[in-house]
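This part of the workshop introduces the protein records we will be handling. Each record describes a single protein and holds just a pair of labelled lines. Instead of coordinates, the fold is spelled out as a row of discrete tokens. To make this concrete, we reproduce a full record directly below:
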Amino acid sequence: MFEQLKAEWLAAGGQEHRHIGDLLWQQIVDEYQQHNHRRTLEIGSGLSTWLFATLPVTHTAIEPSPKWFTACKESPFIQNVDIRLRKPWHIGDLGEFSLILIDGPVGDRSSVIAPVCISAFRGNPGDVILVDDVNRKPDLAVAERIARILNCVMTVHAADSDTNRKFARLEFPGDHYPRQDRAAHPCPMCLGSRNIRLASGGGAAPCPNCD
């Protein structure tokens, strides 16, 4: 199914750099089948958004580009998906998700992307965060920062059968992230990232005690 959908996506004008790797998509399907994820979040839309639409999940996609947001919103392939036009660090009002895919260039914003994704992470055993393109240093920095904050088990895998792209799988091992701590602590760089404070410029305001 993956190759057929990818071919249709590219034929319909989908961009080559906007497609997810086949091995990463298989990992997402496996995660769904094993843990029955119901609410999923994606940072960066594209072919992966269309593929998520084929799963019986409530899926939200965050897209910062107005041009690409419009293309995905108007695509006949992408149905029953909540696509939001906003910067990826403005997701604090979306609730909690058990599977998060970070799929798109994040530049040098690991200090912001990591805590805001953590703020949207449900944090139950079996919940996962997947970070694509960790063969790139900025994306690897995001994965490593999340793993350090959440004490996740991080493994790196091939994302595509025919390229050198890689993704990181961050598995939440247990109750290291209690809800009462998230609700009470205002620092977005540690366990209390539920209460992210947004600075006037739209970024997270980290605690001065955090790096």
User: Anything to note?
Assistant: The radius of gyration is 16 Å.
